[in-house]
Amino acid sequence: MVCQEQEALVNKVLDLYHKISTLDTLKPSQDVDTLFTQLVRTCIPHTPFIDITKLSTTVQEARSDLIRLCAILSQHCQAVPTKIAFVGSGPLPLTSIVLATNHFPNTTFHNYDIDALANSMAKALVSSDHDLSKRMVFHTSDILDVSHGLNEFNVVFLAALVGMKNEEKKKVIDHLGKYMAPGAFLMVRSAYSARAFLYPVVNPSFDLKGFEVLSVFHPTDEVINSIVIAQKCPIISTSSKEVESVFSNNNLLINGNMIEELVTEEQL
């Protein structure tokens, strides 16, 4: 039974590989979006286990070429953000640190927190790293009092504990939606099922007015926070399919290790 499942998975990957390899281009499109989404969803499950060292030469060659195609695809993904904001960064801004260190070495991170002591501790934490300290900016402000400059951020993170009650959380999201730039991404921490006893819940269907929800991730391990990825709707919405394609082309990021790094900070 296991061997049959393994064979079926390999055959499905090969079928997708042949379809992808015959595409005229890997630039964002409906075909590219659909095929790579299917590929990622096929390969993500841990079972059945595939030992790549035991694959045939033909499959190994297809695998190598598929990796090459994935690399080409990544070149067509959206440009790396130049400025990211984190609202509710706290005294231990691990998300900003991890992203700045491991993923976006040329991006500036603006960290907002209402607590001056928390910002002081966070600033001291990164002060010993010359490069990191230059790219980590700390603002002691209530985000509801901030309007100027929010439209400059490509991505805004909203911590789970900003807005403890639903109406408070929604008020913050509405404020961000008012001042963020059209097309900018909002990444909101939430909670699911019994984990809602520990952190506030964001309802993607009702709490994100003015945003298009692109992805919702509920961890199944010891990580508590879920994450909702949304995009502020353009003033003239004429490219919804393009938006979906761009974000789908980042499926390797959304479904991979990076998303796990983004949901752990407030549990430490």
Automatic annotation (TrEMBL):
GO terms for molecular function: nicotianamine synthase activity. InterPro entries: Nicotian_synth, SAM-dependent_MTases_sf. SUPFAM superfamilies: S-adenosyl-L-methionine-dependent methyltransferases (SSF53335). GO terms for biological process: nicotianamine biosynthetic process. Keywords: S-adenosyl-L-methionine, Transferase. Its EC number is 2.5.1.43. This is Nicotianamine synthase. It comes from Arachis hypogaea (Peanut).
